Amino acid sequence: MERRKFVSTSALLLAALIWGFAFVTQDNAAEKVDTFTLNAIRFIIGAFVLAPIIVVLAKVKNRPVFEKTKKDRKMLIKAGIFCGLFLSVAANIQQFGIALYPDNANTSGRSGFITALYILIVPIIGLFFHKKVGLHIWFCVALAIVGLYVLCLSNGIGSVYLGDVVILMCAVAFSFQIICIDYYGEYVNGLKLSCIQFLVCGIISLILMFIFEKPDISSILSVWKDILYLAVMSSGVAYTLQIIGQQYSTSPTVSSIVMSLESVFAAVGGVMFSGEHFSTREIVGCLIMFTAIIIAQLPMEKLHRKKQ
Questions:
Q1: CA–CA separation, 179 vs 86, rounded Å?
Q2: Which of 16, 86, 203, 267 could crosslink 262 through cysteines, CB 3.0-4.6 Å?
Q3: What pLDDT band is residue 108 in, cutting at 50, 70 and 90?
Q4: What is the three-class DSSP state of 248?
Q5: Has residue 308 been placed in a domain?
Q6: How buried is residue 22: exposed, middle or buried, by Cβ count under 10 Å (0-12/13-18/19+)?
Q7: How many domains does the structure of the chain reveal?
């Protein structure tokens, strides 16, 4: 069990790190490339990056590339479609919301804070599916939200922007994606699920791109480095780590708390790549969030047994 928890936490932490740095690239790309165009490119590339890896791993382990039984193939496709639908809604709404913020808004901070509210939404939705969480996890959720607020909104939330409302919708969609992966993750191969969900998300975004947007090749090429990072690292690597991490996790709520560290890494990315500086308040926010993560990982059941 301890090994499973270590693998889960490590995979989800690495995913949060990659996603956190992705906020910088998403903001840069949003200035040149429209939402559906960007997501169509990044997720289709992400699917094609994973496809040969799946084939190679199957050959190395001497296993079939495709599922043996019709039942298993049906389950994998069903899981990929549902997860891909939720991912498509969440990713496109998030990118659209980021583009809606005015220039004077603290875009990364506000969008990062509101997106990470899935740490509260996930356990609430889970209650409807009879997924109960312990009191210490609810405490960690509350503590993490306080940390997020201190980290991301140093000047307070102030007036509400249209982008805030849109990003909140994105947080709800990501919550359903997390729960969907938690449900299907134990039944299907993680890499294959990741590949199919990218393909579904990419195709949906591609269709919407041709309906609502006019892609410009020169604009796309001007931010090719950002798109490549989003496609290979943020999509191909991070979302696969999310699936692997959740497969070994004890609870989708605990997973969401760990993944909420993307906001911390987004702030770190701002320091590293945008010349920003950590204030004392932001350091306190990071420490509060890390405290919530540590408490959420403690084996409370064992502690209770020792007391008895």
A1: 10
A2: 16
A3: low
A4: coil
A5: no
A6: buried
A7: 1
- Which of 84, 42, 25, 78 lies closest to 209, judged by CA? 42
pLDDT digits (tens, 9 = 90+) for 228-249: 999 999 888 888 888 888 888 8
Residue 68, helix vs strand vs coil? coil
Give the domain extent around 133: 2-299
Helix orientation angle between 280-297 and 262-274, rounded to the nearest 10 degrees? 140
End-to-end CA distance of the chain: 21
Pick from 145, 97, 130, 132: nearest CA to 260: 145
pTM of the model: 0.81
* pLDDT 10s digits, 201-213: 999 999 999 999 9
pLDDT at 265 over 70: yes
d(CA 209, CA 196): 20
Six-digit token pair at 52? 């040969």
Quickly state the pLDDT bin for 79 (edges 50, 70, 90): very high
**Is residue 79 one of the residues assigned to a domain?**
yes
292-282-19-84 Cα dihedral, nearest 10 degrees = 60
The rounded radius of gyration (Å) of the Cα atoms in the chain is 19
Is position 307 within any domain? no
Model confidence at 221: pLDDT above 80: yes
